[in-house]
Design brief:
By secondary structure, the chain is an alpha/beta fold. Helix content is 32%, strand content 22%. Strands 3-2-1-4-5-7-6 form a seven-stranded mixed beta sheet, sandwiched between helices. Bound molecules: S-adenosylmethionine.
């Protein structure tokens, strides 16, 4: 428990610093350029204030194939500076509602500023832990998350929480870092608060989702995640102690960005 708390305290401190410096523990420094490389379209980026697009710390675009409908109620776990909250709010429209949830006050402040700048009304950013979602059961139509669950010490608990808050028939789409045969020696060298150290092997990640009760999982995107882009994350001085190691094809294993969708039986 105390180990988990100290990991979360470190993650919170890392992201407080990163939102000011725009570096990331999960990839190259945040920028609209990064957002493009992880799957956001020009149209999506143009619809958001530059400040929000420039502060993406994601590893995919979990809303790309989400097919949100007007009026739906959505939650973004680990909402960061608010890019996905903003895009979801445009899709659900004024009759819908989007919650963001994050544990880093500085990120929450940035998200609220970005959403206010965009004049978005149908959103609310909550402070809290994705392992204990502060919303009632069966209250949401859709849950999304971008490069956050990989940071959670107890991923099984996160997926049980997603299952709890979704209505019967509710869906989720999450982008995350997973690993494939990552060598324990490499993993051990990575700081516990970085994206890869706590990332699950792909099969274990999918099993955690099934164990929570979800069926009909669909992997909508699976791509090698190259932590060496820009050389930034291979250096020890990336500002968040991410460490890192080369990704695809390395004998030490692979680091993968995975986007998964699923549904709670209706
Ligand atoms: C890699 S950033 C991703 C931010 C955002 N989803 C994006 O795509 O830009 C991780 C975010 O998750 C938040 N976070 C990490 N662990 C969390 C937890 N257990 N509960 C709530 N937020 C968490 C961090 O504060 C940070 O804002």
């Amino acid at each position: 428990m105390s180990d988990r708390k100290s990991v979360k305290d470190q993650i919170r401190a890392d992201y407080a610093r990163m939102i000011q410096g725009r570096s990331s523990c999960c990839g190259p420094a945040a920028s609209p350029g990064l957002a493009r490389t992880i799957g956001y379209s020009e149209k999506e980026l143009a619809s958001a204030p530059e400040e929000a697009a420039a502060a993406s710390f994601g590893c995919g675009n979990p809303l790309a194939l989400a097919e949100l409908k007007p009026g739906e109620v959505v939650l973004d776990l680990g909402s960061g500076a608010g890019l996905d909250v903003l895009l979801a709010s445009q899709q659900v429209g004024p009759s819908g509602k989007v919650y963001g949830l994050d544990m880093t006050p500085e990120m929450i402040a940035q998200a609220r500023a970005n959403l206010a700048q965009a004049g978005i009304q149908n959103v609310e950013i909550l402070e809290g832990d994705i392992e204990a979602i502060p919303l009632p059961e069966a209250s949401l139509d859709f849950v999304t998350s971008n490069c956050v669950i990989n940071l959670a010490p107890d991923k099984e608990k996160v997926f049980r929480e997603i299952f709890r808050v979704l209505r019967p028939g509710g869906r989720f789409s999450v982008s995350d870092i997973v690993t494939k045969n990552l060598s324990p020696a490499v993993r051990e060298k990575l700081p516990a608060s970085g994206c890869v150290a706590l990332a699950l092997e792909e099969e274990d990640y999918l099993e955690a989702i099934r164990e929570a009760g979800f069926r009909e999982l669909k992997v909508t995107n699976r791509a090698p995640f190259n932590l060496s882009v820009g050389g930034q994350l291979l250096s020890a001085d990336c500002g968040c102690g991410c460490g890192g190691h080369d990704s695809a094809g390395s004998s030490a294993g692979q680091i993968i960005s995975l986007t998964v969708q699923g549904r709670k039986a209706g």
